[in-house]
Design a protein that fits this description.
It is built from five helices and 26 strands. The chain is globular. Bound molecules: 2-acetamido-2-deoxy-beta-D-glucopyranose (NAG) (3 copies). The site of one 2-acetamido-2-deoxy-beta-D-glucopyranose has 19 residues, from strand 21, strand 22 and strand 23.
Length: about 400
Amino acid sequence: MLSNYFLIFIVSAVLNFRKVSSYDSFQVQHQWQFINFTWPSQAEYQVAYYTRKYVPENVVMAGIKIFEGNIYFAIPRIRQGVPVTLGFMAETSPRTNPLINPFPSWDMNYQDHCGTLQSVQSMEIDKNGIMWVLDGFRINDNSMGCPPKIILINVRNSETVQEYTLPEEISLSRGGFLNDIVVDDTNGGFAYITDNSPIDPGLIIYSRSQNRAWKVRDASMFAELDAANFAVDGLNFTNLSPIDGIALSPPNQNGIRSVFYCSLTGVHVYSIRTEILKNEQLCRTERWRWGVTYFGTKSAPSDGLIIDNQGDLYYGLLPLYAVGKWNVRKRSSSEEIVGQDRSTMIWNDSFGFDNQGYLYLLANNIHKFFNTNFVFPDPAAIKFRILKLYTGTASYLYY
Ligand SMILES: *[C@@H]1O[C@H](CO)[C@@H](O)[C@H](O)[C@H]1NC(C)=O
Ligand SMILES: *[C@@H]1O[C@H](CO)[C@@H](O)[C@H](O)[C@H]1NC(C)=O
Ligand SMILES: *[C@@H]1O[C@H](CO)[C@@H](O)[C@H](O)[C@H]1NC(C)=O
């Protein structure tokens, strides 16, 4: 008996030790060679496959968010043959090549109809389980020139609760690119959205209670020429890509919240206070621009950003295969590298938090998909990975 208990003690001590030691590094949770879906029937799968409505090697996930045991995915139609643009799976899904379910339904993912989801790049899920979906990837011909839109869906019952179509003067139906979003629960709910459009880049402010949007444009949102042409996994990223990553800070000791943003081709991070952005009249004058504040310089360009409820800003450092961290509340804080892995962290794109203290990271090779001539030398290679890091904190939404 005693020896049995002793053995159990040893085994649990070893398991606990492994658990603790894994807390300080990113661990791969899920990985894919290609993305496949839970088809309604084998016949529908066959038809989609043979008519090239589904081309497995063309599907790339771009955004992830975690809510109540599910991981949600934005799957922009960058190439042809992407049958689903918004999907989900349970966190408990298999590690390798788990199937993705369409969200909220197959019907809502129907392509070639401006009333359904056309090409989703990103989303946020607020504390009440409302997903704010950005259907605004409009820089190719896979979305029929449909105007970009913001759709609010209740994830608990899959019902659409609100919808807003962006007018051309805010985001272009041919050339707009709603890239990333943060949600602010004050004053009836606001979203701050980056428009990575190569034609009209800027920061869009959407008021849920007014169901209205406005846009600010500034040189701090343009690509930085000095930062152009960086190499990631053997492929140079030569685009001059403007404002892309966005993060919202929790309130500071004076109750002030700020939006942080950076250009994809760029290393400078800027911020603006939310009171300025929420004031539409001020945004229509030139005076709002006095609020643009230089925050700091990162060691490399990034795609997605996220801030937790302690004010730590996390971001991918694309050409370094790393993740950086910077506290936005502490004046003296500076950049720290919290993870680096040349083999798994290829294009650290999107971040999300669960409610168990974990930061999720999607590394997706997306720069290769944007290059239309690029073919993966090894089709069986792992192209997408979800990694998890214990931070003990939660998203900025839970301040
Ligand atoms: C995709 O998933 C379906 C089941 O939903 C399966 O029948 C099919 O073989 C899968 N295709 C590939 C290429 O793995
Ligand atoms: C690719 O990027 C690397 C690193 O920035 C640079 O040294 C190299 O000159 C680039 N190659 C080309 C062909 O531009
Ligand atoms: C992504 O971030 C992880 C964790 O910091 C790092 O190990 C990996 O190298 C990064 N990959 C890229 C391409 O930046």
